[in-house]
Amino acid sequence: MQVAHPGVARGVAEHSSFQTRPYKRAYSTLRAQQRIVFGPTTEAVDALRRMQRRHASVSGDGYHALDGALQLWVWGSLIDSTLYGIRLANRRFADGILEDFYKESVWFGQLLGLRRDGMPGSLDDFRNWMKSSLEGAEVSVGKEARLIAESLMALPFRWAAPLNRTWAAMTLPERLRVAYQLPEPGKAISAALLLCVRALRALPLSLRSQPAFWLAMRRVNSEENSSV
Fold first, then answer.
1. The total number of structural domains that make up the chain
2. What is the helix (H) or strand (E) element at residue 199, kind and residue range?
3. For 64, phi and psi rounded to 5 degrees?
4. Which residue from 90, 138, 166, 175 has the fewest beta carbons nearer than 10 Å?
């Protein structure tokens, strides 16, 4: 979804090692995200500084990684995907929880370099902004985006590509699914995949979460106990 924006796609295509070293590239991105979200403050700040330094040199014809519009789209794609995942898993939250999540996401966006007044003010505003962005001309899938998407389909193994394509077709907005030339998924396989996702909720938390989350929760519990 992120590379559906031509400026983002060009930046990735011209400055990323997604083709020559796809596993290392994917791992470094995931590690940085985990350090920012789950790491202690010093690690999160260090990861953010590294990201800013790296992005400062990413520029080319008609784009720069620190451009506010491109940063907003990348940030918005992360938030939208998280909200979609919550709906897909059929999670139910008390009133105000998702709004609180969005407020924290705005703070996260500021840490990435976005201006507060450049982000939608509320969750409803964000949803309206995303809807208009997806319907507008600024988001347009080109050959760079399709090349990047094709390389991602082969992760973590080439035999997983058909499943990844089906999953992408299920979860992308319809306009982007068509632009990426992904066939509409069949109802049977869509229902089966959705059932598998929702069945994961029955697993113990230790089996459906990542080590970075365990360490963060252990650290938070330790800090709470020490303050009692």
1. 1
2. helix 187-199
3. -150, 135
4. 90
Sign of CA dihedral 27, 30, 33, 37: negative
Tally of CA atoms within 13 A in the half-sphere of 204 that contains its CB:
3
So what's the pLDDT on residue 157? 81
Encoded tokens for 109: 């966006």
Question: Is 3 strand, coil or helix?
Answer: helix
Range of the domain at 37: 2-223
79: its two tokens: 């938030």
Residue 228 lies in a domain: no
User: Which two structure tokens, joined as six digits, stand for 213?
Assistant: 């989350």
Residues 135-178 pLDDT 10s = 999 999 999 999 999 988 888 888 889 889 999 999 999 999 99
Evaluate whether residue 67 is within a structural domain: yes
Within 10 A of 114 (CB to CB), how many other CB atoms are there?
A: 18
Helices 6-15 and 143-153: crossing angle in degrees, nearest 10, is 60
